[in-house]
Amino acid sequence: MKHFTTKDWIDYVRDVQTADVSARMKEHLENCEECRASFQLWSSVTKAAADDLNYAPPSDALRIARSQFVPSKPAGSFLGELMANLVFDTAQQALTAGVRSSSNVCRQLLYQHGQRFIDLRVEKAPTTDEVSLIGQIQESTSGKQTTMPVALCCGERIIQQTQTNDMGEFHMVFSPVEDLHLELDICEKKIRVRVPEFPDVGK
Ligand SMILES: [Zn+2]
Q1: Cα-to-centroid distance, 7 and ligand 1 (Å)
Q2: What is the total count of domains within the chain?
Q3: 68 in a domain, yes or no?
Q4: One domain, residues 92 and 161
């Protein structure tokens, strides 16, 4: 018995043969296990290919998948993504001669992370060596605020922890050390905000 080739069976399932050939192959199928296996394989492949064409993923899945392929910022490391950007710093502003000295005791900074603004006011206590940090976290999209944990860290070490109030405000007093940052627990993600150093501290 002469078998039909793979190509023949592909043509058969695609139904592109003459009625005559088709009929002979159909007849052959009844008696040949080997060709039946080939036929079954290629009919399931053809069906899968056809199903694939008809298949449209849910728009939500598509949107999520697309968001994964948004080109990342060139310098955007993993940490960079979680770092709030500094948008304003009084220490970088040109001050008039008369108020210049005050910049050493009070510094105001504004950070941005996505839709969030983080306002920091750092003030050196006049008599002690301590620094007072007043912050406010504001959402630019909605006025709704929830309290969130804020931690003051030196490297990996947590120095102080607090919680914002309903207005997104928090307050901390600490002895200044180098390399300080805040960790804000926003949506189960830790956002880092660098705490500025004071050039006059310890002098
Ligand atoms: Zn056969």
Answers
A1: 13
A2: 2
A3: no
A4: yes
DSSP state of 83: B
pTM of the model: 0.53
Query: Is the same domain home to 47 and 119?
Result: no
> What is the tens place of the pLDDT at every residue in 129-173?
888 899 998 876 665 667 889 999 988 889 899 999 988 899 999
Same domain? 169 vs 123: yes
Going from the Cα of 3 to the center of ligand 1, the distance in angstroms, rounded, reads 4
Ligand 1 centroid to Cα of residue 2, in Å, is: 6
Residue 12 CA to ligand 1 center (angstroms) comes to 13
- Phi, psi dihedrals of residue 154, rounded to the nearest 5°: -120, 105
* Rounded-to-integer distance, Cα 43 and Cα 102, Å: 82
How many A from CA of 51 to the centre of ligand 1?
28
The SS3 call for residue 184 is strand
